[in-house]
Specification:
By secondary structure, this protein is mainly α. It has one domain. Helices cover 79% and strands 0% of the residues. It contains 5 helices and no strands. It starts with a helix and ends with a helix.
Length: 119
């Protein structure tokens, strides 16, 4: 039985359903968002549970490392994908909240400004 492969497919299908609901309710931005996440999950390697686990942990780790420095659109996409990956893992990945990400981004921006002004 492929637990993580099945969870990956369920998350993909859930995002497709959310996209359809958003379209039916006249929310094109949310429709596009959910459809994009479903597309990204569809591209995820899914040959075995181990491969899905490695992929999901990698996405989660990349989001924690890179979201604070990415342009907002890319950060939002990576963050949303990482949330889905943490669901697939059953929250085995670090539980990082949106507030934590915002505070880290603010701290990083302050540090970058301070470092830049020192040069």
């Amino acid at each position: 039985m492929s637990v993580y492969v099945d969870r990956l497919e369920r998350e993909r299908q859930l995002n497709i359903t959310k996209a359809q609901n958003a379209a039916a309710q006249g929310h094109p931005t949310m429709w596009a968002h959910y459809l994009r996440i479903a597309e990204l999950l569809g591209r995820a390697p899914s040959s075995s549970d181990a491969v899905v686990q490695v992929y999901c942990r990698d996405v989660s780790d990349r989001a924690i490392r890179h979201c604070p420095t990415l342009p907002p659109r890319h950060a939002a996409e990576l963050w949303a994908l990482s949330v889905n990956c943490r669901r697939i893992l059953g929250h085995l990945a670090p539980d990082v909240t949106l507030n934590w990400l915002r505070s880290r981004a603010a701290r990083t921006e302050t540090e970058l400004t301070r470092d830049h002004s020192a040069t």
